[in-house]
């Protein structure tokens, strides 16, 4: 969190010294409660209004307009869930500093323009690769939000409980933290649910919850309590579905500086990902095929040959074939002759390690 705080402090110092509004910000992290808490803290430090909405709850353009009005921080959680027309409006209006509203219908309709030059949009996605491409490149600042530590989660729980004058024994707090999977939103949701099941809360003005009361409530809610000694199994990329594997590759490409989009299923020789790189000499359009194969199921020359045909038909700068297994000798020879780059499991793991995705390595 120190890195996030320091980044926000720089934005605020710049705003106060030059009168320039902070940049629009994308927060990438699965903990929705933590993301909103960070955004609220930023608005409070900036000394401006804060308006928050979850994208899934925005049904009409008027809902968007309501949170854009005035000089404030507008927070949209899970922006990847916005309707397509809303995404386009944000991309074309918010980042241009002007919000257009059509008042009336037919010949009498008129367009009103709101000045958004003082607005800072903070949006969230569970992971970078889930941000719609129309918005991803427009965000000047993209921050990855790491999960809270157990001590951080315990502090969040304690603060929330005290709002209702509820205290928890240390063991009760540890139990709830252990059941939340490292997410403060899950932690707070489970805490609110157990509160309705504990008699002491109903009968006492300032209850002090014990471990046993919390454990009993969790059991009634069928929430499994992980063992303290349980070890999280190592991640196996072969457990992903083909579509999930393609999404992981998209995340890798974004970390490497590409703009990337998944394509529709196209069959043999089809393209799974289209990526663009905006750099001198090596920039251009790249095509990817991704095969989530078992380690003993090698990619053969016919598959690489079909992919080469698709790359040539598209006139792309380069084609890259990625697999979670390896390539036959004939496939390697054809790739070398045709200019197709091939990436096997060993190379892929190294790429994950080098670009901050070690959990997939």
Strand-helix topology:
Layout: H1 2-18, E1 25-28, H2 32-46, E2 49-54, H3 61-68, E3 72-77, H4 84-93, E4 98-103, E5 110-115, E6 120-125, H5 133-136, E7 141-144, H6 150-162, E8 167-168, H7 170-178, H8 184-195, H9 199-203, E9 208-209, H10 211-220, H11 242-255, E10 259-262, E11 273-277, E12 284-291, H12 301-314, E13 318-323, H13 329-338, E14 341-343, H14 345-354
Parallel strand pairs: 1-6, 1-7, 2-3, 3-6, 8-9, 12-13, 13-14
Antiparallel strand pairs: 4-5, 10-11, 11-12
Strands in their spatial order, largest beta sheet: 2-3-6-1-7
Helix content, binned percent: 40-55%
Strand fraction: 15-25%
Distance between the termini: 25 Å
By DSSP (H or I, 4+ residues per run), the number of helices equals: 14
Kindly state the mean pLDDT as a whole number? Answer: 89
The H-and-E topology, N to C, reads as HEHEHEHEEEHEHEHHHEHHEEEHEHEH
* Gross geometry: globular
Q: Extract low-pLDDT stretches.
A: none
What is the total number of structural domains? 3
- The CATH topology of the largest domain turns out to be Rossmann fold
* The named CATH superfamily of the largest domain: P-loop containing nucleotide triphosphate hydrolases
Largest sheet entry: 5 strands, parallel
CATH architecture of the largest domain: 3-Layer(aba) Sandwich
Given helix and strand content, the structural type is alpha/beta
Rg result: 25 Å
Name of the CATH first level of the largest domain: Alpha Beta
Number of DSSP strands? 14
